Amino acid sequence: MSYAAILSFILFTFAFTYLLFKLFFHPKQKHKKPPGPPTLPIIGNLHMLGKLPHRTLQSLSKKYGPIMSLQLGQVPTVVISSSKTAELFLKTHDLVFASRPKIQASKLMSYGSKGVGFAEYGPYWRSMRKLCTLKLLSASKVEMFASIRKEELGVLVESLKKAALVGEVVDVSEAVENLVEDIMYKMILGRSKYEQFDLKGLVQKAMALFGAFNIADYIAWLGPLDLQRNLDSQYQELNICMQYQVIVWQVMENLNSFKKDN
């Protein structure tokens, strides 16, 4: 049998089993949901989002109101399109909705969703935030790198002077972007971006994978089938956690060598 035929058979079997479970074994939900469009088995309302989901949601809100419910695969979702209602979720009751959803990318590339950007809100996340605030982002730590910022800013000013003397056009946005990048590299790694570390490339790859649509985030049991062909292997190949560890180890080795030499 071809791959397509096997895949179709597996999907049909899963769909049939799911429908039987929903019809005969799944208990009726007692809580009342906001109004929303009718759903399809398995995929729910995923088919309705299209290529411009923000416009689709805006159109649906006109029909179902500022608070509506969608079923994105297996994920029940409440959509808010009113600023006053959004304030209740994001400000008044923000602690209830503070946690990020656990997606496959964060599990595979953020130590099982343990990074400060993806960890569930609670004691662990609060301790992580406290650690970052006191050890990385405090006023004394920021001031510690003032000389680096001054040095890199001086380099930028000199390059602008040279460009002005010869009448060369300067892309200011690109120049400022490079300035910030150079400062960050030296603050984080103690090295120029041109030396041995491709941190920017690593972050760009990670952001692309974090933002990619993954059907397994909405229908979990489809994850092992890898329907999007090699998306899971891209997570494993990139292996953000290990590459970050390698960078940290290299930085620590360089610091230890510097201390020994001095």
Detailed description of the structure:
This is Cytochrome P450. The protein has 262 residues and is mainly alpha-helical. The protein contains twelve helices and two strands, in the order H-H-H-E-E-H-H-H-H-H-H-H-H-H. It has helices spanning 3-25, 46-49, 53-64, 83-92, 104-109, 123-135, 139-144, 146-165, 172-188, 199-211, 231-238, 240-261, and strands at 67-72, 75-80. It has a two-stranded antiparallel ribbon. A hairpin with a 2-residue loop joins strand 1 and strand 2. Helix 8 (146-165) runs antiparallel to helix 9. The mean pLDDT is 80.
Descriptors for this entry?
elongated, two-stranded antiparallel ribbon, 12 helices, mainly alpha, 262 residues, single chain
Gyration radius (Cα, Å) is 25 Å
Helicity level, as a percent range?
A: 55-70%
Question: What is the global morphology?
Answer: elongated
**How far is the N terminus from the C terminus?**
67 Å
Low-confidence regions: none
Largest sheet: 2 strands, antiparallel
How many strands in all? 2
- How much of the residues is beta strand, in percent? under 5%
Strand order across the biggest sheet? 1-2
